[in-house]
Amino acid sequence: MYNQQESYMTKETLIETVENQIVDGEPKKVKETLMRLVMTGTPREEAIQWIACALAVEIFDVMKHEASFNAKRYDQHLDELPNMDWLDD
């Protein structure tokens, strides 16, 4: 079981992670999603926050189920942004 206090990720950490993913180009889908959202009128800061939300959902699932990071599911969540119906799952 994970220690909730030790594994807590702040909003700032999530946003920093997304920014690093964009700079590194990995996963590629993160930068593509940012470009798509910005091109459709979403302010960059808001788009980054949405991407961070998708990342947080995946990280939470990893911790909850003690599983591996599911890159395919993360990509699917990114594809669905700005719709976040998967938050209800």
UniProtKB/TrEMBL annotation:
It comes from the Bacteria. This is Nucleotide pyrophosphohydrolase.
